[in-house]
Amino acid sequence: MPEDLNWAVGGEAGDGIDSTGKIFAQALSRAGRHVFTSKDFASRIRGGYTAYKIRTSVDELNSVVDRLDILVALTQRTIDENLDELHEDSVVIYDGERSWDAEVPDEQIPLDVPLKSLAEDAGGAIMQNVVALGAACEVANFPIEHLDSALEKRFGDKGQKLVDNNQEAARKGRDYVRENYDHDFGYDLDTTDEDYVLLNGDEAIGMGALVAGCRFYAGYPITPATNVMEYLTGRIDEYGGTVVQAEDELSAINMALGAARAGARSMTATSGPGIDLMTETFGLIATTETPLVIADVMRSGPSTGMPTKQEQGDLNMTLYGGHGEIPRFVLAPTTIAECFHKTIEAFNLAEKYQTPVYVVSDLAMAVTEQTFSPEEFDMDAVEIDRGKVVDEDDIDQYMDEQGRFQPHYDAADGISPRAFPGTVEGAHMTTGLEHDELGRRTEDTDERVQQVDKRNRKVETAQNEEDWSPREFGNEDAENLVLSWGSNEGAIREAMQELDIDVRFISVPYMFPRPDLTEAVESAEKTVVVECNATGQFADVVERDTLTRVERINKYNGVRFNADELVDRITEAFAAESEVTA
Amino acid sequence: MSSQAHFTDFKSDKQPTWCPGCGDFGTMNGMMKALANTGNSPDDTFICAGIGCSGKIGTYMHSYALHGVHGRALPVGTGVKLANPDLEVMVAGGDGDGYSIGAGHFIHAVRRNVDMTYVVMDNRIYGLTKGQFSPTSREDFETSTSPEGTKQSPVHPLALAMAAGGSFIAQSFSSDAMRHTEIIEEAIEHDGFSLVNTYSPCVTFNDVDTYDFFRDSLIDLEDEEEEHDPTDYDQAREKIMDFDNIYQGVLYQDDDSVGYEKRLGIDEPMNEIPDGAPEGAMDLVREFY
Lengths: 582, 289
Ligand SMILES: Cc1ncc(C[n+]2csc(CCOP(=O)(O)OP(=O)(O)O)c2C)c(N)n1
Ligand code: SF4
Known about the structure:
- Chain A is of the alpha/beta class and 582 residues long.
- The longest helix of chain A has 21 residues, at 160-180.
- Chain A has helices at 17-30, 76-81, 115-122, 128-140, 144-155, 160-180, 201-211, 226-232, 249-261, 272-288, 315-320, 336-353, 363-366, 445-465, 489-498, 518-523, 537-546, 563-575; strands at 5-12, 34-41, 49-57, 68-73, 86-94, 109-112, 197-200, 214-219, 242-245, 265-270, 292-298, 329-331, 356-362, 369-372, 429-431, 471-474, 480-485, 503-508, 510-512, 526-531, 551-554.
- In chain B, 31% of the residues lie in helices and 16% in strands.
- In chain B, helix 1 (24-37) packs across helix 7 (177-189) and helix 4 (95-101) packs across helix 5 (103-112).
- In chain B, 56% of the residues are buried.
- Chains A and B meet through strand 7, helix 7, strand 8, helix 9 and helix 10 of A and strand 1, strand 2, helix 3, helix 5 and helix 11 of B.
- Chain B: Its cofactor is [4Fe-4S] cluster; thiamine diphosphate; Mg(2+).
């Protein structure tokens, strides 16, 4: 038997698939098991296939695999969609009493459980999914008490009766399997004493923002970024902040800009189409030197593309989007936990350098729940740097001879002082027009060059002062180099455990400024860049930076990389005759 | 700066580049006077401006200010006010800026009712881009992009504001300095979103909606025979929907209006944050157990 268990529940959108999956994931996490989830959903609310998959192990997990051990199928389509992931010991739990005769292929073990009528016995048909969870516990040999605890968490607020009914429903499912199937399914789910937390990338971004002192969030709902807004709503108020659901992204980013100008740590989050709309204002933010964090939770484009599918297609947009030339920072968290850390870092960078900062994550991270030990979110390590904020005591040093405050003062490091509105003697204006040190419009050639240089100098300063190191895995001396950015890290790391070849893996969380990869690329025999897009946007950047050709592994069918396929594709890429011979 | 600011304190040392005679001079003077008269100072005032001749107003005034992108000044003002309710926030721009490219934001700003004052310098033309028709231009107005008239009916800003649930709807005329100033003062003092549509003639590109035209046609609601009570919704509606006449004064004011920021419970500036993670931050993590 494999050491990890792969479980899924699938049905029609509207069947409560998401919450069912989440409850089971929580039960496993509360039992001290690692969990890594993935979701398969269509862009519709009712009808349409949807599934929640869980991979669980006592060891750390960072990826999905193409294998299902237990499948709770609420519809025939759930079985059909997952045929190629089922193996001969897979158990398929379904309800034959409902008006369908499940066609479970011969190789698999069918488990016909009257989910609906057992749920009715326990107090309501709505609990049929919980009956299935109880049945799954029995199949997996997983103590039902952990499920009890997850149900308590889920329904506790709504009253003990509801909790009792659900726990009862779970038992009915378990007992039914116990009594009717005299079969050892061969699973034995160990538990540990670890207390894990289970969260997704959007929640990690939201939590990072709160911890970093974000007080203002304006956004417009869009998959898969909405969760950031939903997380902050209600929570941010406790810290004296607010969330505004704006009328569109144009408004959202301008509100966020206004709040940032007023001195609040401020942010917005959106996905590709929203970034398009925000781009005009993005230039304004950079020119007025306003600190702002913008999260782009990427999905499959262009245009509305495939809104519920994975892609890393916005790199160029975040690096180059906007007319004219715009200094910016672009961070790309490589794991869900990094979504938290990089968001905090983004707020510090934004205020220290008074620039817009993109946090680029993606659907695969946004909708994936993963377990972490709470220490991953070390609050004592959080540092806040607000940069050069001046108050009435030190504003004098930034006045010109006539006693006027200079918000765009041409400092050696490129970083001007910042006076929050309300600061006495600090009144000044900023504009998207080119301006002088006082913030006043200018078309003077020297002043234009001075301000452009000043803004760009901030990037140089940051390049020297901040740590832009990538994350390194594998053998540093290996001749095969794998590079990737953003969310592919987990799958690649896991693939490396199965690879027969020796590789060095550099996972890059900083897209701009970025680490200098020249030495690594030059010392490797061959470099392969892995990314979830068709054209290889990061590979292009690497080639340009290092003046060396690289190989590419791309995927753009809407599904994230999984570890199994990467084993094959990386092996192939390094085995193949290089396209460019030296 | 003390609260005894003089209106000239709100003047920047940048000379306006508006055409001599442009209505925007008067609009600006009234805004500065109203700010001073209501006890504000440049250091606690924030002006968000749009794009257009009108939008340059922020450049010629002295206060905290942001001159943003075309049509988006209202969202900026919203963000400023929510993040620091202690600031006096004023938003200014043209009819193109506010009712064309920014029309979506206008309607939502009205219904959101953040406590700020929106002054629209309505010259019924695009000035800065040199004379194309604007959303408030008359249907038969001939311009470089409407040689045979616009062939579309104009936007009625006050009606739009009323339909969107506006809590303060007013109109003024930039050359009637006293009334214009008074009306802006009332707008500043109103708790909630105040629209002041200010006729601010463009002497260069609009030879129809001139000073003389406005002077001759404006009906002042303060005139006794008008007997206008701005708190009377039905009366207000009647005047606002009367597209044959143009009025000066406060057409509608909701006495019960409470600014959005107050309804959100924001009572302090958001610019102070802890040095590290907030106390009890681990509770945020524990939620995910
Ligand atoms: C996105 C965008 N589109 C177009 C323009 C060009 N533009 C500048 S001002 C303006 C119209 C201004 O008209 P209005 O708001 O009535 O102001 P006025 O100049 O008449 O005071 C336009 C279209 C721009 N700056 N940005
Ligand atoms: S073009 Fe018209 S609106 Fe612009 S400054 Fe001249 S008179 Fe004023």
